[in-house]
Design brief:
The chain is mostly helical and 185 residues long. It has nine helices and no strands.
């Protein structure tokens, strides 16, 4: 017995406490979505950190200038001038407006709720480890398929070399400590 007489109507304050505090059931935690969201944001933060340093920013701008050579010749000089004059500013603005949180939300990896959620490592560690192991295996299958398809390209040796590099990166990034690095274990 709860000690409350079911025949008497509850006052509004008492009803609120009964519904929201005393009898409140804990919401189930969506650990899987949390892990996916946090992993996505971690990856895109690393990409942003890598891209937004002077050496790599310069490489990116050099590559964009090369793209200018692929547009009609009448516009090539204007394109290159715009890259030189506004390229750094455009990268900074893009990074400011489109950070990891927005990218992961657009990709469907984060909901507004999970993006700002916080769960203890005891709830996330095992799910993170399982998810990362599954991702590593899926990537290895993809890279093996890629390597097996190298016979169909014009530069098969380069194709094999790049697919081997991708396999090595997969093992290096999705290592035993990845969940600790993402602060989920």
């Amino acid at each position: 017995s709860s000690g409350i007489n079911a025949e008497w109507p509850l006052r509004p304050g008492t009803q609120f406490c009964q519904d929201n505090i005393w009898m409140k059931k804990e919401e189930p935690k969506n650990v899987g979505n949390f892990v996916t969201c946090k992993a996505c944001m971690w990856v895109f933060q690393k990409v942003e950190d890598y891209t937004l340093n002077d050496a790599n920013e310069k490489k990116l701008l050099t590559w964009v200038e090369k793209v200018c050579d692929l547009i009609p010749a009448d516009y090539t000089a204007t394109c290159k001038s715009m890259v030189e004059d506004y390229g750094k500013e455009a990268i900074a603005t893009l990074a400011e407006k489109v950070g990891p949180a927005m990218v992961c939300k657009v990709l469907g990896q984060c909901s507004a709720q999970t993006m700002f959620m916080s769960l203890p490592k005891t709830d996330t560690c095992k799910t993170c480890q399982t998810t990362m192991e599954e991702l590593k295996q899926q990537n290895l299958e993809l890279f093996s398929w890629w390597q097996n398809s190298c016979g169909d390209v014009t530069a098969p040796m380069d194709c094999v070399k790049y697919s081997e590099t991708a396999k090595l990166l997969n093992k290096a990034i999705l290592n035993e400590s990845i969940c600790e690095e993402m602060e989920m274990c």
